[in-house]
Structure formats: C-alpha cells, structure tokens
Amino acid sequence: MTRPAWSEVPRPKVERFAAIALGEAGELAQAILREIRHDFPHLRLVEDESGEPMALVGIRRAIERFVQHLASGAQDPRMPPEVFQEFGRDEGLNGRSLDSLQAIYRLGVRLAWRRFAEIGQQVDIAAPAMYELAESGFEYLDGLVEQSVRGYAEAAARRAGERLRLQRQLIDRLLVEHRGDPHAALGERAARIGWELPGTIAVGVLIRPAREAVAPAVGQGILLDMESEQPRIVIPEPDIAGRWDMVRRATAGWSGAIGPSVPLAAAATSLRWAETAVRLVESDLLPRGEVLHCTERTEELVLLPSQELIDAAAPRCLAPLEGTSPVQARRLAATLLAWIETSGGAPEVANRLGVHPQTARYRLRQIRELWGDAIDDPDRRFEMLLVLRAQRLRGDLKDPPESTPGR
Predict the structure, then answer these.
(1) Rounded to whole angstroms, what are the CA distances from 282 to 245, 252, 257?
(2) Each residue of 160-202: pLDDT tens digit?
(3) pTM reported for the whole predicted model
C-alpha cells in the first residue's frame, strides 16, 4: 500500500527514528509485557530454552521487524509466522478464548504506538507521516492476529480430536459388562473429558439418514460416537425433565432407537435393547424416520425378535384352524385375538374388529366349536395371545374390511 507522507520523510530522519526505536526495542518490550501482566494477571507465560518468556521474545521481535520494514521502505511489514502462531496454538491447547489474546495484542500495539509517537516528535517527523505509521501498525496487528488465529484453529482442532478419541474410549468402556463398581473403572476416563458419571444412563444406536449426515446437535453432557458405522449416543440421567424432548429435537430426521434407562453399570443392557430395536427398523418391522424409545415399543421388542419361536408354537396353538381356508383362518384368528383382548362378548369383539355384531357372534360360535373347552384354559389363551399378537405385528392378520352379516 502506497504511503506518500511517510515516503516523503527525509532519509536521515527515518534512520534516526529507526535507530532510537531499535535501541529501545528490548526496554519497550519489557514495559509492554509488564503492562500486559498487570491487565491480564492470569496469563500463563511459556519460557524458551534460555528461560526468557516467549511472549517477551515475540514482542521484541515484532517491534524490531516492524521498525526494520519501515526503515527499509518495504510495504506491509509481516512477522515470521512461527512465534505468533505458537501463541495462538498455546491459547487453543489450554482452552482459552482467542478474544483475550487479541485484547493483549491491541494493548501491545497501543503502548508501542505511544512510544513511537514520542520518538516521532523527538525526530521531528510530520504528523501526516505519523498517522500513516499508526495505520501500518494496525495493519501489522491484523497480520499478527491472523497468524495467531491460524495457530489457535490448529490447536482447537487437535484438542477436539483428542477429546473425541478419549470420548470414544470412554463409551467403549461404558458399554462392557461391569461386575464391580463402574466408578472405579470409569472415573479417570470420564474426568479427562470433564464428564460427570451419572447414576442412570440410556444408550442409543442411530441410523445415518445419509452417508455424510451432520452429527446431531446433542446437548452438553451427552456423548456421541460418530465414528461407528451406526453412531452411538449415551444419555446421562435420561429421565430428568426435558431430556427426552431435547434428544428428540436434536435427532430429528434420523432413525434409530434408544434403550431403556438403566443404572450406570448396566449400560450394555440398554445398548442391547437399542440394537435389537434397530434391527427391527432395518427389517421394516418398526418405523424409520424417528429415534424410537424402547420402553414405548415393549410389545414389538418382546415378540418380534422371538419370531422363530412364535412361528414354531403357532401350528400347535392354532391347530383347530388347519381345516379352514386361508381367508377364514385369518378372520377367525383376528376374532379370537379380539375376544382374548377384550374379555367381552360379541358387541365388544365387533367394535374391536369393525364388523357387525352378528358377524362377530357367528365367528365366536365357530371358535367355540373348533376349540371346545380348551379355549377356557388361561394358559392356552395366554399362549395364543402371544402368537396372535406377533402375527398381527407382522401384518399376518390383515384382511379386507367386511360388514356382511353371517360371514
């Protein structure tokens, strides 16, 4: 950037200005650092191999590089990136805000400019040239901040990656069987990521809506492992007010399941139920497009995974239907299930099935004729209830609606 006023300053004055400023660089750096430590008492100073604070080295080098560029007539003075990138990197690794580092830089430039203005008066440099000097100083500051932001971002990414690695290790450890006190096995790992061990926990398994889906924005304290083929979510104290609603909002658009709330030591049990539910979702036996709660799908989770056993019991439980047509067998099975569930007569069964009471009465008489007194045995009815409910869940009892009496 062209700076006409500064370029018109006589060369002897420029050299005199530079000589004074460079001669005082160390002292000025010390004064700036003292002021910074006064205003930012919690600032941690890292020392180099000689025991000198790196901040002091950086301030002195920044002053010297700036003045040398001015003296040489070079435009847009820049500081070698290593020192100030390291400052930003140190802030990021220690979890501090970049705002505080920028405030420190601004303070340093303000103090340096105050002294440069005094030297300018001493050397008799015209005011317009000193204004341009101030502009150069703030542009120089922007360059220092840019370098620090780059170092900060690098450190923040490294820190985030390390936290995710530790978080995955904690999740893996959480989800194994714990015979003793889980706090002894998990406490140190949890402390490393600042996670307070809960009394109860729920574990979920998610199905990605797309390969590159953005991770759900779960709240603080909820652990999420996106590295697994099917991401895992760990919800501490899941039954506190508002927790489920928050998780539901965060996982909108995802499919999956969350296991029941269990004590911390039983996290693996919650995971098993969630995995069972997800297998049913993938088999289209449970709906996609939402994250289900296993405790709201008890019937499906009890009956559908036992499909082979249910199918093996069905021929024995429903043997009296073997002599009927497939359509009649479905209708009688649906009627039998409605009768067992309602424990009522023809009106209740008809209302349940959406048929005429006369139709329900006719079918109930058929059921009584087919099963005889065995239909009154509680154990037989319970077994038939399980078989028929499982068939209904799989859609095996569906039949076109009818209302013609006597059919």
Answers:
(1) 24, 18, 11
(2) 677 788 888 888 888 887 766 777 778 888 888 888 899 999 9
(3) 0.59
